[in-house]
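Students often ask why inverse folding is considered easier than folding. One informal answer: many sequences map to the same fold, so there is more than one right answer. In these notes we will look at a single instance of the problem. The structure comes first.
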């Protein structure tokens, strides 16, 4: 739809995962892959100054690579905000890249999710 409306090809659209509580963001690889003439890597780049963990939601223990759980981020760029942020986002880490898979069941919608939900509600009324 964006390509038709704005002329921006899908290879030039970059999806971002971030939150107000973090100074850093995580980005898709599509544009870089396009400029390097290679297939895009799955997931989002974890900045080198961020450490992300995946925890079992019941035990809060670390899960192995590729396992699905709650995401926790430690962001060295957070100077005047909390260093660690435990999210209600569900995902995994594979090959050093974060895979976002959704929100914890029953988690409150926040941030951009609210805007998107309102958009979906308006689309349903049309």
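Output (designed amino acids):
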């Amino acid at each position: 739809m964006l390509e038709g409306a704005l002329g921006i090809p899908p290879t030039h659209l970059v999806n971002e995962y971030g939150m107000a509580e973090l100074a850093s963001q995580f980005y898709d690889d599509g544009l870089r892959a396009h400029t390097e003439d290679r297939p895009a890597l799955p997931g989002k780049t974890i900045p080198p100054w961020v450490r992300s963990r995946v925890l079992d939601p019941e035990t809060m223990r670390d899960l192995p690579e590729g396992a699905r759980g709650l995401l926790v981020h430690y962001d060295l760029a957070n100077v005047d905000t909390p260093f660690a942020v435990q999210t209600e986002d569900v995902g995994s880490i594979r090959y050093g890249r974060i895979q976002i898979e959704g929100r914890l069941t029953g988690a409150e919608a926040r941030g951009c999710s609210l805007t998107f939900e309102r958009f979906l509600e308006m689309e349903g009324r049309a």
